[in-house]
Specification:
Elements (H helix, E strand, L loop, with lengths): L8 H8 L6 H7 L4 H16 L3 E4 L1 E5 L26 H13 L4 E5 L8 H14 L4 E2 L4 H11 L3 H11 L14 H7 L6 H13 L4 E7 L5 H18 L2 E8 L17 H14 L5 E2 L8 H7 L6 E4 L6 H4 L9 H10 L4 E3 L8
Parallel strand pairs: 1-8, 1-9, 2-3, 3-4, 5-6, 6-7
Helix pairs in contact: 1-3, 3-11, 5-7, 6-7, 6-9, 9-10
Amino acid sequence: MNTDYSEWTVYVDKNLEGVDLSFDEVLHLFELPLPVIGRIADEIRRKKCGELVTFVIDRNISYTNRCVSCCKFCAFYARTKRESYVLSKEAILRKVKETVEVGGTQILIQGGHNPAIRLEWFEDLFSTIKRDFPDVQLHSLSPPEIDYIARNEGLSIRETLERLREAGLDSLPGGGAEILSNRVREVISPDKISANQWIEVMETAHSMGMKTTATMMFGHVERNEDIVEHLFRIRALQNKTMGFTAFIPWTFQPKNTELYESIKEPVPATRYLQVLAISRVVLHSIRNVQASWLTQDFEVDKLALFFGANDFGGTILEENVVTAAGKEHKPARVEEIIKAVKSVGRPVAQRNTGYEVL
């Protein structure tokens, strides 16, 4: 195969011109040598985003680990009633206060599908957070949680989102997407919402003027074709609504999950960088692509900045879900992120949830 970069500038041109790649074109990207697909993605990133790398000071608060979905890829949900918990409002407020005191601007509140927690609980929590910490951006509750709350209350998705937004919810994270292929979802999360339902929640949020992010968790039972289907679903909605602020692909961590018997190790960094780069090439209408130091490490994240990523993610002062799957976690200090980015010759700045530089 001729790997001369000049042979592949068509991919750069199509991305910058907003042309949708075909299914076969994207499958072909998986056949390219890693340096080639990396260079294509890096060129797109450079022309679309410039050299600046951004990050956010944030915290992920898991309000409950009780979950009726019991997904096979998840090690976080409580296996017994004794292991289950629901954080008190006071405990959550303490966590928010600690985040604000170190310059944090984003709070991501996510948890399990707990039938005992009603919509009024979230309304009270969000309104109290906004009253006490008006500058905090509540980037909280994934589409599966929104769908579950709506069904638990007998409300529509729109009615549920309207009430949550009135209480203080600013935007939705892209959790629960995993792979937006029902073939895959039937294997790893049969009791969770379908791919179409995930898209429905996001489209409803976008129609109300709420911004969201999109994610992809790969490295389990998916094929390349499933990844392409996922990217095409995200691309189609973004082309329609322009409601996604960023795309964040990350790798499945198998330890302590039901899938561990068949999948012993996460996919290698080379696979992560390949999928990251392809995501940048395909998703022409999403400006920001975020690296995932949480599931990789700082060294891979620095490489990711040359494979299409323009954002280093968050400091993640607290995280429980990936950690439960055996991935060691310690918060990233702001100085560590700045040092890492500057070490590869790139400028760096703190941002907020809306990707506005602070």
